[in-house]
Amino acid sequence: MNNLSKITTGIAQALAVSLLLLGTQAMAAGDGKGKKADKPDPMQVVRGAKAWKNNCGRCHNLRSPKELNDEEWDVSVAHMRVRANLLGFEAEDIKAFLKASN
Amino acid sequence: MKKILCGASALTLIMIAAIPASAQDNSSDSQLNQQLLQRIEKLENELNALRQAVRQSAQTANAAQKTAQGAVKTVAAVKKQTAKLETGSYAGAPSDAKWHLAGYADAGFTINDKASSNSFGGGQVNPILHFQYKDLLMFESELEFTTSGDGETNTELEYAQFDIFLNDYATLVAGKYISPIGQFKERLHPSWINKIANAPAGFGHDGVQPGSDTGLQLRGALPVGNTRFTYSLAVGNGPQTTFEGGVKLEGSGKDDNKNKSVGGRLGFFALPYLEFGGSFLTARVSGYEEPAGHGDAPIFISADRPALAVGAGASNARFTLWGADAAYTKGALNARFEYLNAHRAAFFSPTAEEPTGTFLPRLGMKAWYGQVSYRLSGIGDSDFIHKLEPVVRYGEFRISGHDELEEENAQDRFNIGLNYWLAPTVVTKAGIEWRDFKVPGVDSETLYQFQIAYGF
Question: What topology is assigned to B98-455 in CATH?
Fold first, then answer.
């Protein structure tokens, strides 16, 4: 095994351990809820509409908000948050817009 | 109530002030003092009783306010659920665990001017399951069911991954995931999203585009003003050597050596509708220790062992890939470009043709494509015209170091097509594809493609 291979293996192992630690910390931190104040934000729907237009239409046609109900949008947007590398609060804004429009 | 308290307090103070004066004026009138003291004590008791009553009233008022607020919330929730029941969109009470069945399907017909028959194709369905637990994690999986040329049903696990939401900027992915390399495989390959009936040359099976990997991935985004950086960094089992001496770029349930692949993609949005990306992947692939039959689990050469009976030489080799992509997606215009370049170093490995071991020369693969589509939604007043979308794509795929792969796949490919959108997620496609193979003696082909695709 040459030096490049050892370096690559070392980087891979370090990255894998880091990823596992990050995941474990997140699991230990709780259920991931309650990070933000629970106050209604009247501008969230507006931001969500803009983020929906800018992000969702980048790869495919914009789906009508009426295609899914609130819970289905929760799950669908969570999936697209990962696939499209959306910011967490951006995904929340999009959900708020879709739920307000379905 | 306040007036009563104030009055009582004032009277008390007056009386307290009067006591010493009375004592000085008539020190012998102890009886009067005694009476005054008794009255003061009585007034103090009444004052305490009044204070207690005030406290109880305040507590009662707070309790009543909370009850009223709870009632208002309950009424709002009932109104919302009632509205959903009336519109038929009610999916049950909110719960910690939610799920959604999505996916896509397509069917088509292809005419090939060089083939002996023209075929109905497709009959393909890709159900995608999403299960979410609170805002903590999601498990998602895509299966692919296709019908082979001889009528068999093929089943493949496209991906099965856990998404653990760490914070607004990072998600940890674990399991088998679609490769984050480039844009086409991860985002554009579903048939209802892909503008043309098939993948660009080199970006489908037996191409340079990795399909999937098994491992860990950290991905997310970082905001930069009004735009953002995106990242997807992965550590996985990596690619493997195929029976034919090529490289299989699909996720495996078991690694062929102790070396892990490291790869990913970094993206940047210069504008909300203009994205640039760069991808990389590095790994080692091993040769087979024993030739395995199709369907048997392969046995790989251990990483540090000398090669086979053929003599000294490396028994594994480095695989390196890099790529660049760009996308402009504003309004009705959609333009994309992707480039991938990969090579595997030379090494010894048995193949199907040489089970005792053979030397595999350096394998090089590179592919690129450019694609432009334009939705005619702003042209004229006709609804029919508005649903049309012409598309054009040109790409090249080159292979060196593997004659069989080169003969079958190296080509220039030019596509034109016209799509008609029946709905935002339902499209019919009609197109022509010209394939100009680069190995002398291999005839060029023209394909006429028709397809209907539905994303659900």
Answer: Porin (2.40.160)
